[in-house]
Each structure stands twice: as structure tokens, then as C-alpha cells.
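#structure-requests
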Amino acid sequence: MIENAKLIELTEKYDSPLYVYDASKMESQYNRLTNAFKEVKNLKLNYAVKALSNINVLHYFKKLGAGLDTVSIQEVQLSLATGINPKDIIYTPNGVSLQEIEEVAEMGVQINIDNLSILELFGQKHPEIPVCIRINPHIMAGGNSKISVGHIDSKFGISIHQVPHIKRVVENTGMRINGIHMHTGSDILDIDTFLRATEILFDVARQFDNIDFIDFGSGFKVPYKEGDISTDVEQLGLQLGERFNQFCEEYGKELTLMFEPGKFLVSEAGVFLAKVNVVKQTTSTVFAHVDSGFNHLVRPMMYDSYHKISNISNPDGRMRYYSVVGYICETDTFGSNRRISEISDGDILCFHNAGAYCFSMASNYNSRYLPAEVLVVNGNDYLIRKRETFKDLLRNQEVVSLGTEKIPV
């Protein structure tokens, strides 16, 4: 990973708060997953755009050979702006209108539908367009309820109990199902969860003639702290790869095995750097207030997620306990009672595992500016998103007249 001295240099060059991404870590994670499934003849990794959607990151994964997994028409447009072949994009929305799906279909990308009524409407109007179906396998998996999306009460996917209805839609419309998809959740530790869901997908796939691929989603857990456990993708590659090859023989066709990793590819590649505004001692707690808040990094508040926090300005200092908090006028605690080397005003704190679902979930809450983003490639740093300014806050606001007066700007 990028050394502390380099990170401090980047904050001096680009100011704080700042997101920094290490391209070499993205590449090593991509290669690790590819190598884990090297026994599979046709493997396709589609990077989940929603994890980190900067167009330079999308272009980097395109260069590595990845496809792109999208969930909105805007993500499709971003992906196409990289020059990627539309056939290398899969579009898996949830709860969108038929109109949006039709607009995306016109762009030539792979459509993935997770709603029975939309499937029927789309098949009636566009039977010539092959469609993938997202199945809900009714498996509870993931780090917590907010990121578990394959259980029986989930809004995602078509229930496995509704497969006969899918077959009836296919028969009535003449449409073709060319892929089967699932995604059970994020931060999955037990590979048996994948293997159980695998058999469910295979049972569904057997009921459709001439599919081209099976997409197992993702959800691989990465380590967030020292000693933390993560998904054993190498063991999963051995077991799932062997079973997938066996299924292809049973099916009578070489299918493509797909995954849509996001967090696995970029989480550890990113750090978030924030400057300490002030250290505040109360009767029971020492607070380190930084020049950021949940407007820039909401995962700890939204998902109770853990991000290791280190003081890169004083890495060898005496260890003390701090609650690291932000400047938003609500409770925005990044970490409570964390053991961190002694913090002083002006120090730079580094929040680790900040590559996935961090900048992409940032906002202008409290009218704060979005931070800059930097990508480090082969030791060279590139500004891939400029820091916002006051003009950016006003850009899409219209000044209107209230009676005879204009609102002053």
C-alpha cells in the first residue's frame, strides 16, 4: 500500500479531506480472483460500478479485461463513456420503470430483470432481446440485514418458487432467457453459502434451454482490521469451479461463469485522509474532530461498518484512546474509543478500506463540498476528481423573483 509519507505529501498537494486510490491493489485483487477460478474455461468479472464510479476507475478495470456491472441508466452511460463494448456491460436495476429498461436495451447492453411483471411486459414488446433473470434464492447471507438481499423478504429478485411463472412468460412471449443471476448479500464469510446457492441456480438453469451464462453476484468479504477474517476465494474457486465445469458437461454447453465484485476489488485500494481540526477533552472522552463527516464517509453511521483509523502524522507516538468524530451538526462518529497513536491538532488521520461505497455515497449535506479524488498508478498520482467549490453548489440552482425582489446570491 501507499506509504504514510506519500499520503501526507498528497494532502499537502491536493488538500484535505481527500480520497486516494492505489491502482496496484485493484489489479492484484482482480488477478487474485481471476487466478482462483483459472480452471474455469469461460470466466467474466464484471466490476460493480456502484462501489466506486469514477470514470478513470471504470477505464482502469476495462483495461484489465473486466466487464462492468451497472444498476442505473446513468451508470450504463458512464460505462459507455469509457469506450467499452456494450456487450461487456450487464444492467441489473431494481424497481425501475419499463421505460428505463427499454432505453438501456437500445444501448445494446445485457439486460437483467428481477421483476416478474416487468419481465412479461418487456417480453411482450421485445421478444427478440435476450434477457437474464435475477433469482431470489431465499438465502440469508451477508454482514448485516441492510446488505443481505437474497432472503425471502427481500425486494430483490424473482422468487425461486415463481420459476414456473417465468417459464409461462417465456412460452407466451417467445422471449429468450440467456442468463441466470443471483446476489445474496455482502461480506459473506462462509463459502458454503455460495455453494448452497449454486445448486439452486443450477436447478433453475436446467429449466431453460440455451442459456449463455450464470452470474453468481459477489459479496466476498475483505479484512477491515488486523486478524480479521475474509472470504477464502481460492477455496471457493477450487470447489465452485469444479462444480461449475461439471454442470457445463451436464448441460451440454460451455457456459460463462460471471461474478460482479465491487468491494473485493476496490475497498482495500482506497484510503480517506482527513485533517484534525481540534482535539477536545471532556470529562470522560477525548474527541478528535476532523474536517469531514458522514457527508463524505457515511458507512460507519449507516451500516455500523468498521474502518481502521491511523494517525499517519505521528505513527510511532504513544497510544491513546480517542473517539473520532466529524463536523456535521448531528452525531457523526467514525469510531468510538479507538486506540490510536497520540493525536494533535493538524494531524492527518487515515481511514482505511475507503475504496468501496465511500465517495460514491458522499453528499453535500450541510452544504459542504465533495472532496477530491486521486488515483496512484505506478507511483504517479493523478487528480481524477477536482474538489468542489461554491460555484458547484449553485450550479443547478435557479434564482427566482419573489414579488418585486430577487433572491440575493
